[in-house]
Amino acid sequence: MAWDTEGTRQRLLDAGARQFAEHGFAGTRMDAIGRDAGVNKERVYKYFGDKQGFFDAVLSRELGTLLDGLEGSLADPDAAGRFTGDLFDRCRRQPTLPRLLAWESLEVGHAVALDRRQSMCAAQVTRLESAVSGLDHEAAQHLLLTAITVVVGAWTLGGIAESVLGTSDPAARRDQVVQQMRALARPDS
Fold it and tell me: Which residues mediate DNA binding here (predicted)?
């Protein structure tokens, strides 16, 4: 029977996304990843080198799709709000995404797959500039950063929402985030 190298890699990446999202870089153990994937942990080292290389591969795969498919959100003046709402919904469906972004910032100290992510973000910035009248390039960059930061914070800082709002109702939070991003996108505000 032939070894399914690609299947093994995918199971490891899936397990890595779950484990790193739950425990962060420092708290994740390679033997836990192996158990989660149903694979000997030595395969991680064979395919990815070391823990850092594996973490980078997991983040590159998971975060590489963070903004994919959200282009339609940036088609009109309500673009910033719609984009933020769509990103919020994506993070609701894929809760590992905001957690991995948070762990990357807290523990890694550098952006993983930077070239790929920068080109993805640059495309979104260009779409924002086109969709929102009067928004220059730098303002569009900051608006995109604000949208991503607000959404990631909504999913990773639930204790703060509970402290400030007395609840962590995702539907209500989404509505407020969308309204506030629409307001921020008005250059004359």
Answer: 29-48
